[in-house]
Design brief:
With 275 residues, the protein is of the alpha/beta class. It folds into two domains: 154 residues, Rossmann fold; 101 residues, Beta Barrel (OB fold (Dihydrolipoamide Acetyltransferase, E2P)), CATH 2.40.50.1020. 28% of the residues lie in helices and 28% in strands. It contains seven helices and 15 strands. Helix 2 runs parallel beside helix 3 and helix 3 packs antiparallel against helix 6.
Length: 275
């Protein structure tokens, strides 16, 4: 067996060519095992290159044309996983005096400062390597602040990038119940789960269908209330009854008042760490 460290694959996205070149060069100094497999000039390219190359890691400039880094991160988080690939770790590229650096420091995601300085980059690289090694070992990194998922950080960053535009979350769901249309209070929904065409809305009393996909609901629902546990599933945190494991070791979420259990994908097992 070779003792050569396995290459970690990354996509680098920044609309400034000189910044990409500087960060690539500095990363080459402090993390020679890192392989930059593609570079993007905007958020749309970042999402497509991530879909194409399936990297372990994506560096996203927080402000880019087309899609911001925050918007690109939301789309990347919804990409389909497979047995050989998990949604990548996200590292934001940002200026020190902007946005929620304190939230990054708590471990929801990491960041690189502009311009990338060697000492700070060494700290970032060490933390990323630890997160990736935990994933490689089958244990999700603790990507939560007070149990909250990455989507809470993305909402916070989006609000800071658009001051005065405080998020207005959905309060009602208009859904089909049989032949009727019913208005369902969002807080009554226990979970949303999607197939290719419809999203099922489940309350304690009724099951309904809507056409809105999970990737849209993630942005429209309060992330403190609704946790994404799978790319096709959002669950009301207040409705969680407990966590069990099946014979293959997968986490299953029990829902209060229901016998149905919902599967947690590997990217979201950190939500229930220690349970």
């Amino acid at each position: 067996m070779s003792d050569t460290p396995a290459k970690i694959r990354a996509v680098l996205a920044d609309d400034e060519r000189l910044m990409r070149e500087q960060l690539r060069a500095r990363l080459g100094e402090v993390w020679p095992e890192l392989e930059i497999v593609a570079e993007a000039k905007n958020g749309l390219e970042a999402v497509e290159l991530t879909r194409e190359h399936k990297p372990d890691l994506v560096f996203l400039d927080i402000r880019m044309p087309g899609l911001t880094g925050v918007e690109a991160a939301r789309q990347i988080a919804q990409l389909p996983e497979d047995d050989d690939w998990l949604v990548p770790e996200i590292v934001f590229i940002t200026a020190y005096d902007q946005y929620a650096v304190e939230a990054f420091e708590q471990g929801v995601a990491d960041y690189v400062l502009k311009p990338a300085e060697r000492d700070r980059l060494l700290v970032t690289v060490a933390r990323i390597q630890k997160r990736l090694s935990l994933r490689e070992g089958g244990e999700a990194a603790d990507a939560s602040v007070g149990g909250a998922p990455l989507q809470q950080l993305l909402h916070k960053l989006a609000a800071q990038m658009n001051p005065g535009g405080a998020p207005k979350y959905l309060q009602w769901i208009q859904a089909s119940v049989g032949q009727a249309i019913q208005m369902i209070p969002v807080e009554d929904v226990l979970f949303f789960i999607s197939d290719e065409k419809y999203t099922r809305v489940q309350t304690a009393k009724i099951e309904a269908l809507i056409r809105k996909p999970i990737k849209e609901l993630v942005d429209e629902l309060d992330p403190k209330l609704f946790w994404q546990i799978h790319r096709s599933t959002l669950v009301n945190a207040h409705g969680i009854d407990g966590i069990t494991r099946d014979f293959r070791g997968r986490q299953l979420v029990g829902i209060k008042g229901l016998t149905e259990k919902l599967e947690v994908s590997r990217s979201y097992t950190h939500l229930f760490k220690g349970m």
